[in-house]
Amino acid sequence: MLTLNDYNSRIKPSWCPGCGNFGIWGALKNALLKQNLSKDDVCLLYDVGCSGNMADFVHTYGIHTLHGRVISVAMGVSIANHQFPIVAIGGDGGIYGEGVEHFITACRANVNITAIVHNNSLYSLTTGQKSPLAAKGKKTKSTPHGVVEVPFQPLKSAIIHDAGFVARGFGADIPYLTELITQAMQHKGFSLVEVLQPCPTFNKDMSVQWYLERVKKLPTFDGLSEKEAFEKVDEAPDSLVTGVLYKSERPAYHEHFPQLQQVPLLGQQIETVHIERLINSFI
Ligand code: SF4
Predict the structure, then answer these.
(1) How far is the CA of 84 from the centre of ligand 1 (A)?
(2) Residue closest by Cα to atom 1 of ligand 1
């Protein structure tokens, strides 16, 4: 019989007191338990950052990847075995900054993975520089006179590119986030769960209280039309909608390939290919 403790490594989390990462960590473990997935039944991949430090605290199959590359590595794992539950975990800096091209590609391709993005609108591991989600005018260590650019729109981008499942949660609402992560993992194709994550150390003006005054849960888990979802997203920052914003039932990436219908790539007999001639042509 699985318990939450089965997902804990021997290392205790080193996040700052009050960090939203604790809630995301708890919700993720709850979601694994709810689906009865043992440590050997799931692959968790991590970007670099405070979020990626979770790699040390969770005991499952996993890879701590390079900065900005977690989605691309997760896509590779999925192409090797699309039947295995795969979760890519990272921050808004790594996934929407350095890794934005991989993020858009995963949405377009509808690769069968779930991405959990810890959104605190900063690069926090490097002590508080603006991320692509920082609001215009926000003062950070790297923007003492305020951010000039308008923020990236990940939820709208995922919807425009017809990702399978697009949701937003709040790190301090663990039961609701547990449900969103569970549904995301069970949905076919690319699932995005963006999580509003307080960073009390470097983003003091977006406290838990600040979020509590703005977070509004959708009444159902049915998803919205593209138009309704955009309207809800546009209510930010006065109202931050959480819940399932959008669902698409289009085929996942692997479903376009007849040779993957029965057996994933990993289980197939692939003939040995002799590449000496090719190598010799470069010498
Ligand atoms: Fe969490 Fe911010 Fe501390 Fe990083 S710096 S562990 S995001 S509170």
Answers:
(1) 31
(2) 19
> What is the CATH superfamily name and number for domain 4-280?
Thiamin diphosphate (ThDP)-binding fold, Pyr/PP domains (3.40.50.970)
| pLDDT tens for each residue of the chain, 283 residues long | 999 999 999 999 999 999 999 999 999 999 999 999 999 999 999 999 999 999 999 999 999 999 999 999 999 999 999 999 999 999 999 999 999 999 999 999 999 999 999 999 999 999 999 999 999 999 999 999 999 999 999 999 999 999 999 999 999 999 999 999 999 999 999 999 999 999 999 999 999 999 999 999 999 999 999 999 999 999 999 999 999 999 999 999 999 999 998 899 999 988 888 889 889 999 8
pTM, to two decimals: 0.95
What is the C-alpha separation between 218 and 155, in angstroms, rounded?
Answer: 15
Q: Which helix (H) or strand (E) holds 209?
A: helix 208-212
Q: Ligand 1 centre and the CA of 184: distance in Å? A: 25
Query: Largest Cα–Cα distance in the chain?
Result: 66
Q: Which two tokens stand for residue 143?
A: 């923007």
Strand order in the sheet with 240-247: 61-64, 43-46, 86-91, 114-119, 191-196, 165-170, 240-247, 215-217
Instruction: Tell me, in angstroms, the distance from the centre of ligand 1 to residue 92's CA.
Output: 13
Q: What single DSSP character describes residue 135?
A: P
The strand pairing partners of 91, in sequence order, are: 118
From residue 227, give the alpha-carbon distance in Å to each of 104, 219, 233: 20, 17, 10
Burial of 144 from C-beta contacts in 10 A (0-12 / 13-18 / 19+):
exposed
> How wide is the angle at C-alpha 4 spanned by C-alphas 12 and 23, nearest 5°?
60
Could you tell me which residues are beta bridge partners of residue 114?
87, 191
